[in-house]
Amino acid sequence: MMQATITGSKVHSVGYCAFLLEQALAIGFRRFDARNLKHNGLWQLIVKVEGESNQIESFSTFIREEHPPDAVVSDITFQEYSGHIMSINDYMHLISVQQMSKGISAILRIERMLDQWLNKQDQILDK
Q: Which CATH architecture fits 2-126?
């Protein structure tokens, strides 16, 4: 098992988790997890995988050499990991729910803005 910590000013909200998930699926990992967190004022993406040593080496190379186009990475570290890592299928469900939640929030914001706009339009028409 391996944990990679990707640090940078822009590793959050650039599609990094989905980017790495796609590669993890291509390599054939059965366990995968990726989470964003803020540490000492910088965003970090903590990625955990479980697999054969050749899979882990291939994934580590990919992490070192590739990143989403909008990402800004300042440091990448690797270490062994010994805790629980969820199944890649469970992670895909989790990331889907997270994206739906973001979408619902965006739709509700748009709806509130539209209501405000319509209220202003009604006020203008009343004058």
A: 2-Layer Sandwich (3.30)
